[in-house]
Amino acid sequence: MIRGGRSYVSSSPAFSNDAKRLLVCTGNTVSIFSTATGLQITSLEGHVALVTSVIVVPASSPGSRILCYCWTASLDGTIRYWDFSVPELMKTVDIRMPIFSMVIPSLLRSPADSERTQGLYAYISTENIRKSEKPKSLSGQLRKCNLTKSSLIGGVILKETLRPEFISVCPSGRFFGISSKRKLIIWKVPQTDSDQVALKKIVLHHTKDFTVLAFHQSQRIVAAGDVTGRILIWRGFGNKTFSNSHGLMDGNSQNYDDVRPGVRGDDDAESCSTWHWHPTEVNVLAFSSDGEYLYSGGREGVLVVWQLDTGKKKFLPRIGSPLLYFVDSPDPTLASISCADNQIHLLKMPSLGIMKSISGIKLPFSAPEALKGICGRFAFDKAGLVALRTEAYGIQCYSLLDDRGISEVYVCERNHQPADEVTVVVTLMALSSDGSVMSTVDVRLPEQDIGGLICLKFWTSAPENKQFTLSTVIYEPHRDSHVSSIAFRPNRLMAVTTSKGGDFKIWVCKDETQQKNELGQSSGWVCHAVGAYKKKPMTAAAFSADGSVLAVAAETVITLWDPDRNVLVAVLGDTFSVGLKFYL
Length: 584
Known about the structure:
The chain is an all-beta fold. Helix content is 1%, strand content 47%. The protein has a domain at 369-583: Methylamine Dehydrogenase, Chain H (7 Propeller), CATH 2.130.10.10. The longest helix is centred in the first third of the chain and has 4 residues, at 111-114. Residues 394-569 form the WD repeat-containing protein 75 second beta-propeller domain.
């Protein structure tokens, strides 16, 4: 059995310390990809449920030996420590509660601060498996785990929420926080952490539900996006609550003015400003590594780069799918962006050019109800290549043997717009046995019962890269009837299409006898023959393994044809009668 295709975007990925590898949560494993080639190198296998977090242990200082260790957390209730250069499992911590998110702030702190702690601590978002049966019972818990002792700190629940929430951590390791409905809850990590120490927290409020938050690299700034597309930026958060006993915080004197523009009520922040560009909820927020810019994204498939001081913005448009995660790498010229269509794009910074893409199987397109009866889902060739219908009028070619996306064809070009009404539906696709030719059928839907168009298209590809180019377009191949099936003849440039209108057509490529014309271009596909049986709807077709027999389903019977002469040779399931028609 050949299996392929997992989600690459269920959780945020992580770069190795040298930025040459990208660690991606893929189901129960962590797949490690080369950032130079976009190909998978190895994987970390051991979890028995979805991996939800991967955290690379940073190098202790610039120029030190490149570390290849990471922590992972999973819904199987375990936290695991790996040497991913081998790869080898080094340690397992079993907390017996599904983990939805994890951060380890002390890994991000300076060596001097880390030495003050009495162990390595993780803060995890878990689900209370003993929750009440009441409809509004709180199932999410934010808890603390001592990784050094491999134990969950009993009795310490930092916060209970309606459901497990994603945890964000400050790049300096000083703060972490969650968004819960219309609140941001931020904790300060103590300089000397232990099992008994209590954590201070603040709460920032809003009038709409939050969706995502991000901390600034070095300054006391936190940004959060909401369901309406707005971005709120608080500066100087926690100046009162998190100050030390001398009234100082980070070496700055405590001058807390009562005039705090944009801050709601008694929220602990100096100011709050609002930016608005996104038309729908914000899914992505991240500060640049130098702290000068803020990246944001959402359903519209556009990455927005905001200049933090001025609010000016620039864009990376036409990504083609809603954005989910943005991750900076230790290399300032490299970043990644994860998209809802199961792709991770590696970006060249700061120009925002897409260098490589790591493609998983894309989500299927849901056809309108009127066309569901004639829509095919996928097609195979003998080499393990599968063609699948995707959103945005596309066909994805995916290699099951290599478990990666090879190429993509857009039957009808369009930019991604989340509110667009579907006007074209790809109903069928088929691959030749060697994968060199693909055929598709797309239907342009009528507007107010007027218009509508059915197109049969043939595509050809080069053997080495499977990049398909359009060869032939045939409008209304079966008059006004929908195409019900497509099949290619083995070892020949011949295909058959059937129609519920009562006929089938055999198509041949002129290159079969005339490989290339004088200009070296494909000479296209033409109709070679038409056949019918008692005016019955033709619903499916297939060639025999050697291509000598064509079988066509006509309602409750199977008709067998000689495809070269278009002659009926037998009928299975019925008695031959005079209703046969065929045309040459």
